[in-house]
Amino acid sequence: MNKKLFLVLLLVIFLVGQVTWGQSKPIYLNPKVATEKRVADLLARMTLREKLGQITQIESHRLMRDFWNKGPVDPAWLNKVIVRYGVGSILSGGDGAPAPNNIREWVKFTNQIQRATLKTRLKIPVLYGVDAVHGHNNVIGATIYPYNLGLAATFNEELTRKYASLTADEVAATGINWTFAPVLDVAVDPRWGRTHETLGEDPYLVSVLGAAQIAGFQRSKKVAACAKHFIGYSAPESGLDRHPAYISERDLYEIHLPPYYAAIRANVATVMINSGAVNDVPVHASKKLLTELLRGRMGFKGLLVSDWEDVQKLVTYHQYAKNLDQALILAYNAGMDLNMVPMDVSVIDRLETLVRKKKIPITRIDEAVKRILRIKFQLGLFERRIVDPKLAEKIIGSQESKKLARTLAQQSIVLLRNQDNILPLSKQTKSILVTGPSADSLSRLCGGWTIHWQGAEEAELKGQTVLEAIQNKIDSDSTITYFDQVHNTKKLVQLAKEADQVVVVVGEKPYAEQEGDNPQLRLSPMEEKLLTTLQDNNISFVLVVVAGRPLILPKGEEAADAIVWAFLPGTEGGSAIADVLFGDYNPSGRLPITFPSKVVKFPVAYYYRENQTTPLYEFGYGLSYTTFKYSNLKVPIKAKAGNPVEISVTVKNNGELMGEEVVLLYLQHNTKNITPLRKTLQGFKRVSLEPGEEKTVSFRITADQRKIFNVNKLQWVEEPGEITVKIGDLSRKMLIE
Ligand code: GLC
The whole model's pTM is what? Predict the structure, then answer.
């Protein structure tokens, strides 16, 4: 047989093999087949029990011998949950780490779970979620980035996207494929215990940075993002976590929904439901919000997951359902797809009974199952469910992540006061006294959901505290005194008087959720006493505040000669704070949230039409070590409705130091017949300027950005009329016809 004929024969055998294997291999296991065909093929093969397993999410600790023992996986529980009950999703909540908590153990843990799925009939991989909300923060060794409120103070869309992208790479490398982030709740009440998790009070800023995080998290297509918590979670009437919220139609559409519209435009894969109640209906039971609004009006097509135990809480907390059966019926029929149970697989038995009794239509179950299967196919989980620990060890805690975290921490720091330019300090300062409970703590720089739900042990974190960073900054012949016996006020005053410079670092202990509620917006009594002791003795000092929210300080803006607000800057935050204190970084952060002068009836956000009090510091405020001058604001005198407009302004650095300015563009509608919000942010750009340098910054404002919400029509409309454009201390009017 000549060679040519032999090759032809080989090719024929190969092609025939391909076709037959292709035919024998189920369609859904063929990655070359379109996702929707794979979903349809797999759904058609599934039993009811297999479907119900897919729409159930169980906490990782349920796979261990005695649940919270943090010990090794229990093969019996692993088999029961993953193989016998076919649970399709696992989460590690605030304390869901394997023990010991290290990168290799995380990879071993997730690989064990995914290997167990290969023992199931259809071999459907697990969708595994964690709260990677400021880095891969559950894993010891991961870089902890600034929390969202600080990230928002950077007004840096590009680095926000990059942070999310690097974090997603770390999450995927540990075999996890879903992060419950970004938080898109708009911070309308700083008393709320989760303000630090938000991207601030402005709907436009939250929308832009939230969409940037979604793009970053989902860039590699290995991790699904999760916009949370839909909707109105950040607006409890009392300011206390999960308390009832009463939200007008206008506030719903003008304040709370825009970030979710942006998330949907950014193709966010999943949305998590708000645990609370809005206008007396628990959101988990609200078909109006979860189906009619989120699906019908807003067009969300992804997966809708409950929050922790929130189906049960319809009975136990909201007393809205008389028992768990009714709660399951309410939640699934309202539109929830995946139930974060998270403790008890027997809910699947209960669900089977309800579906067989047609209390929950099988069409509703199938719709939910399709959404979770679709994500699993899109993430490539059927083809790539086991991960390599070596990659995880290489990228988690990388120099790249540390460098980015430090840059973001630097840019997140807001200089609120700098009396007589006391800052930056000289590195040759002879003697510095450092005091305050946040001066020598990494855990306080990171806040909650760091290694543990309520924050990390000091030994679990790597990085420089503020004290260590100052020690490494100043000259060797300078002396640093660290005094932590702050109740010994006599000694404190004596040391303060002896030192050339005093740096006080206060703030909040780590917290998560309701543990973070702070109805009075105050520091601890000990920290207030520390400040008032120094104030009463006329001690000049620099105050650094490490807090996840605005706080009301003794003597307010005159609390200290210089006030540096660092929010929760993460494991590189100590270094970044020292960079700012000693001028190695010129502060450029701007407030993403209004600082109230006292506790009043909230909200006090800058855009509200009538604010009862003058804020201590308004949204967008922040000082630099240099000064910037705005000129030449160009705004078209007239523009046609529907058309974008080009706006530009010149910014000049009038000082002696290089600096970065955040240029903020606001629109103020002077329309009469609809009561729009006051000025609203509609553009922001960071610009870097050498001393004396000037640049022109341009914005394109679309017609959508000029629309206001007509509450009668429930529509965003562009009204002809006059709009004032405001940038810096300049403003110009334009007429929309
Ligand atoms: C929590 C939080 C939610 C988090 C979830 C899983 O209760 O409300 O933000 O994603 O549980 O940890």
Answer: 0.96
